Amino acid sequence: MKMFDRVFLDMDDVLNRFTMPALAHVGCPVSRYNFDKFPVECGYDIIRAANSFSGSEGDQFYDQERDQFFNRHEFWTLFGEDFWVNLPVSSEMIHFIDWTVTAVGLKNVYILTSATGAAGCLEGKRKWVMKNLGSNWLGRLITCKDKFVCANKHSILIDDSQANVDKFRDHGGHAIMVPRPWNPLRGNNAEKHVRCELLRMLRIDS
Ligand SMILES: [Mg+2]
């Protein structure tokens, strides 16, 4: 029996570009297509990152244009179905799909993503999958906040969140963290890092 027989791919900021388009969407002066202006000191906290551009602090997002505060729940209502459907693919998506499908077969690769709970998110994500990966992948989409429930000694999670990676490992799974400016692997080449980690894991397996 193979040691690794299942891969779970995160969607936001792994298969797509999410954080920078989201910051641009709420009025931050950043490019949707590069990480240059991401405030690395904010880590994996998008409200803190968004607020850093207006100089405001605290747990609520301050919308400069509307001069209005949004709490964490309300923040996500700013992102409707169109936002989720139209997120650009990441520069690594095609490789992540290709490598993992080659390694364990399409029937063993799943997209594991968390939905915000706000209207339009789930439907937008489904449509994004249909648009960018096709109908074969619709049935491979799992939405769940607690990704660790999919962890076992045969599974690998590929994700950009340190917390998700840590919890998945704590629950007996294996994980590869995708280097992004908001996690400790910032500065590493994401494509190379994931490729090396995947090969290392599969080598153990052969
Ligand atoms: Mg993510």
Pick out the low-confidence regions: none
Report how far the terminal alpha carbons are from each other.
Answer: 11 Å
- Helix-and-strand structural type: alpha/beta
Proportion of strand residues: 5-15%
Q: What count of structural domains?
A: 2
What value does the average pLDDT take?
Answer: 95
Please state the overall shape, judged from the principal axes of the Cα atoms: globular
Main sheet specs: 5 strands, parallel
Radius of gyration: 17 Å
CATH class category of the largest domain? Alpha Beta
In DSSP terms (H or I, runs of 4 or more residues), the helix count works out at 8
**What is the fourth-level CATH superfamily of the largest domain?**
HAD superfamily/HAD-like
Number of strands: 7
Helical fraction equals 25-40%
The sequence of SSEs as H and E is EHHEEHHHEHEEHEH
Bound molecules: magnesium ion
**Strand arrangement across the biggest beta sheet:** 5-4-1-6-7
CATH architecture annotation of the largest domain = 3-Layer(aba) Sandwich
Oligomeric state of the chains? single chain
CATH topology of the largest domain: Rossmann fold
Short description:
The protein has 206 residues and is of the alpha/beta class. The chain is 35% helix and 13% strand.
Characterise this structure.
It contains 8 helices and 7 strands; from the N terminus they run βααββαααβαββαβα. A 5-stranded parallel sheet has the order 5-4-1-6-7, sandwiched between helices. The chain has a two-stranded antiparallel ribbon with strand order 2-3. Strand 4 (109-113), helix 6 (121-132) and strand 5 (141-143) form a beta-alpha-beta unit. The chain is globular, with a radius of gyration of 17 Å. It is α/β, with parallel strands linked by helices and 206 residues long. It has 2 domains: 6-17 and 84-205, HAD superfamily/HAD-like (Rossmann fold); 19-79, no CATH class. It has helices at 19-25, 46-52, 72-76, 81-85, 93-104, 121-132, 162-170, 190-205; strands at residues 6-9, 61-63, 68-70, 109-113, 141-143, 155-159, 174-177. The mean pLDDT is 95. It starts with 5 loop residues before the first strand and ends with a helix. The longest helix has 16 residues, at 190-205. Bound molecules: magnesium ion.
